């Protein structure tokens, strides 16, 4: 299921993914596929947050990246 995220939701997602990535890296090592997946998802969340920052912060972007 995918849902468009508002700016604030993107920031929350970024923090959550960052914590998950740190824990996974500590447990499995930096090059583990799970860590890389979290890193890529974190990049997507960051890109979406930046798009929101340049748009209206608390409105979902239509046709933008989704999770």
Strand content: under 5%
SSE succession: HH
The helix fraction, in percent, is: 55-70%
| Largest sheet composition | none
How many helical stretches?
2
| pLDDT averaged over residues | 81
How far is the N terminus from the C terminus?
Answer: 8 Å
Task: Say what oligomer this is.
Answer: single chain
Low-confidence stretches: none
Radius of gyration, CA atoms, in whole angstroms: 13 Å
| Total beta strand runs | 0
Output the structural class: mainly alpha
Principal-axis shape:
elongated
Give a summary of the structure in a few sentences:
The protein has 67 residues and is an all-alpha fold. It is built from 2 helices and no strands.
